[in-house]
Amino acid sequence: MDNISPDAQPHASQPESTVTAFDRAMMQRCIELAKRALGRTAPNPLVGSVIVQDGKIVGEGFHPGAGNPHAEVFALRDAGDRALGATIYVNLEPCNHYGRTPPCSEALVAAGVAKVVVGMVDPNPLVAGGGIERLKQAGIEVVVGVEEDACKQLNEAFIHRILYKQPFGILKYAMTLDGKIATTTGHSAWISSLEARNEVHSLRSACDAVIVGGNTVLLDNPHLTSHQKDARNPLRVVMSRSLNLPSEAHLWETDEASTLVLTEPGSSPDFQQMLAKKGVEVVELNPLTPKKAMAYLYDRGLLSVLWECGGTLAASAIAEGAVQKILAFIAPKIVGGKAAPSPVGDLGFATMTEALTLERVVWRTVGSDCVVEGYLRQ
Questions:
Q1: Closest to 115 in 3D by CA, of 243, 226, 23
Q2: Which of 21, 145, 162, 226 is the most exposed place for a label (fewest CB within 10 A)?
């Protein structure tokens, strides 16, 4: 993310001329390793590490999840004695504090590595340059800022959580070429192509939670799972003030994935009891708003939240700062209809100059669909 405060990155990146193609390739390998734990590390970041001796990889590792050793430790174990005098690559600055695990900087010093190549400085105030300083004090050469943009992209949710004290919100929707997410009758299956739906399933497995409103449960009866064998499923979250929900729904089947219903105090005690018997967790928030929901999910340690809701809830989530990234799948279809719903409800804008303009926009195709990916200004 581009909006990291200067205080969060006290060490300047290495001049591009001193960074080799091999350095960049090894950092990309760190990113590949880190992605093996997508959706499993919250509230920790995604980190991969590679150890190189005489131009050859002698050790690799990645952080599998909170409470487990960090990537550098796994790489050191893999390398063994070959770590002595070696170069270690890691996409995020090694920690220098005691948390659930000992500091990685001390493990690197003890292993006798000669050089550490860091993708980006850790924005966490508990680290924030401390690991780099400890390595330098031990006489280890440190290079910072290799493939920095890619490293920030990998951990955009972690960075956002650290800087803003809330999970990273992604609003995803599929719409027709004329901007509809359903027909006038509410029918919406399927707007996007199979390839696009497969991408969404992978996105779900990489997120910690997926949120919908009560109307989505009523109209679509979604599963909100990854639909992939052996892939993890996110926590499925339903926001409903009145609990005007069906007694039978795929989301109430919790053998495959957990479901959390967020509602307001005193809402339909009998229905709450029924959900509890099905293994659905119910939490009352006062008031029930996207901002309040994100604060609650932050306290639960979540990193990334995928909003797959209808237009009304999407507009509230945007207005309250619960969404940072937009992922829009546009299908080459036209359904028409004045009453057909659109992906974002009323934001109260009267003029086009008030429109929210996405930044860092990327256009691409998936199957027959066009995908627009961009960020709301913070």
A1: 23
A2: 21
Q: Distance (Å, rounded) from C-alpha 167 to C-alpha 43?
A: 9
pLDDT at position 11 over 90: no
In whole angstroms, give the CA distance from residue 245 to residue 248: 9
Confidence check: pLDDT of 73 > 90: yes
Q: Are 231 and 257 in contact (CB under 8 A)?
A: no
Distance of CA 39 to the CA centre of its chain: 7
Q: Which DSSP category does 130 fall into?
A: H
Q: What is the pLDDT of residues 99-125, one digit of tens each?
A: 666 678 889 999 999 999 999 998 987
> What proportion of the chain, given as a percentage, has pLDDT over 70?
94
Q: How does DSSP assign 305-371, residue by residue?
A: EEE---HHHHHHHHHTT---EEEEEEES-----TTS--SS------SGGGSPPPEEEEEEEETTEEE
Model pLDDT, residue 102: 67
Neighbours of 63 (CB within 10 A): 28
- Backbone Cα Rg of the chain: 23
Looking at the annotation, which residues are catalytic? Answer: 72
What lies within 8 Å, CB to CB, of 205 at 6+ separation is 38, 39, 226, 228, 231, 232, 233, 234
What single-letter amino acid sits at 322?
Answer: A
Strand partners, 281: 260
Give 65: exposed, middle or buried? Use CB within 10 Å, 0-12, 13-18, 19+. Answer: exposed
Residue type, 368: S
What is the C-alpha separation between 331 and 368, in angstroms, rounded?
7
Tell me the pairing of strands 209-213 and 325-331.
unpaired
- The Cα 119–Cα 145 span in angstroms is 5
